[in-house]
Amino acid sequence: MKKLSIFFSILIILALVLTGQPAKAAFGDIEMLEFFGCSNNNDVDTDIGEAQMQVWVKDLGVGLNGKNQVGFTFYNIGPDASSITAVYFDDGALLGIAVINPSDGVEFSQGATPGHLPSGNECVDPPFEVTEDFLADSDDPTQPNGVNESDPPPDPDTEWVEIIFDLKDSLRFENVMDQLRSGELRIGIKVQGYDSEGSESFINKPFTAVELMSFNALSRNGNVNVKWATGTELNNAGFNLYRASSELGARTKLNNGLVAAHGDAVSGGSYSFSDAPGYGTFYYWLEDVELGGTTTLHGPVVVTAWPSIRLPVIRPAVP
After folding, report:
1. Does residue 101 lie in a domain region?
2. What residues does 88 pair with on adjacent strands?
3. What CATH number did the domain enclosing 249 receive?
């Protein structure tokens, strides 16, 4: 599934570049981020926002003012009624908004009312604090001029708004992505236009980059030693291990508490866990858990534990 997701993401990126959408960077310099609900006023509205709202982060190179620039393009990929009506940033590598570039039917201006992400101080730690002038919202009438639900790009009627930022000093796109991954830089959005007539706030997911280098299980006398190693870990809280007697069978969680993460973004880490399932064939899954609660499942790996076979002692007959 992950490979399919990456494949379709590549198709969308190429389509954006080829159809005049606001993707100006070469392939490889675009990253897509999703959002998690912050205010949670209404479960249905929160689910719609988490399913439909995306921001594409793009390396725009050096602007006419000599500053490195990064573009943040916000999409609402439908089909449920909703509208992105305000966006907020909390500093990091950003210097200031250079340009606001909306699609047809969308009107945005710098500044937003209110001047803070609603509920942003309560749903995350540290609180979401908007830097002065690092915000924009849709012009009146708010909801019609926001980013409304639409078909995903490259549909020509897709709505979007692009916020282009100058970066501080000699910082580059890679620095922005590192800060988005770590949570040092965060993006918030306010969504209105729901059928419920309510509103919700969302913050981008600081994704876990756990690059799994190896994952295996070895058996000995009814005991299984599960080992895994990572090459990269970002925002990783730890791991869970699961075992089942068949690939589609019910999984049993093996660890009482998280296997604590001790890897880093440069060298990763090595881990092991001892299990005593008895004899037979067993399937193991590894789950990494990010600090925000998002999980990724790896596996299964299969191991067969056989009982030791003792050969009979043959004594030569004494004549």
Report:
1. yes
2. 135, 188
3. 2.60.40.10
